[in-house]
Write a structure and sequence with these properties.
Elements lengths: L15 H8 L4 H16 L30 E4 L10 E4 L2 H13 L2
Antiparallel strand pairs: 1-2
Length: about 110
């Protein structure tokens, strides 16, 4: 059985990396994200489940699902025009993602 070891909610905007670049690693934005990173290191989760808004980057009003589960071997981003944001390629817990999707559909 799975155990939830932590939960986080963070403000986000594509401008945060630029703010940190401009104001430095001691600015409030950098400190808040560093605190989340430190907490993640402390709890050492096996899997991260991330809830996010697509912000109309991939889906649009004529095709906007109620929920979407990324079920692939990996994902990369950001998927928008965020110049100061580094590009990441991260692994996905693909079998877990398929399970979450199937249970979500089954349970409505």
């Amino acid at each position: 059985m799975a155990e939830i070891v932590a939960g986080f909610g963070v403000q986000h905007t594509p401008f945060f990396p630029e703010i940190v670049q401009r104001e430095g690693p001691q600015c409030e934005t950098a400190q808040r994200y560093r605190a989340v990173a430190e907490h993640l290191e402390a709890v050492k989760p096996d899997i991260l489940v991330i809830f996010d808004s697509d912000h109309l980057n991939t889906f649009f009003l004529n095709n906007l699902p109620l929920f979407c589960v990324g079920a692939a071997a990996r994902t990369e981003g950001p998927n928008d025009e965020t110049p100061a944001m580094p590009r990441y390629v991260v692994p996905v817990a693909e079998s877990f993602a398929h399970h979450v999707r199937a249970v979500g559909i089954r349970d409505g």
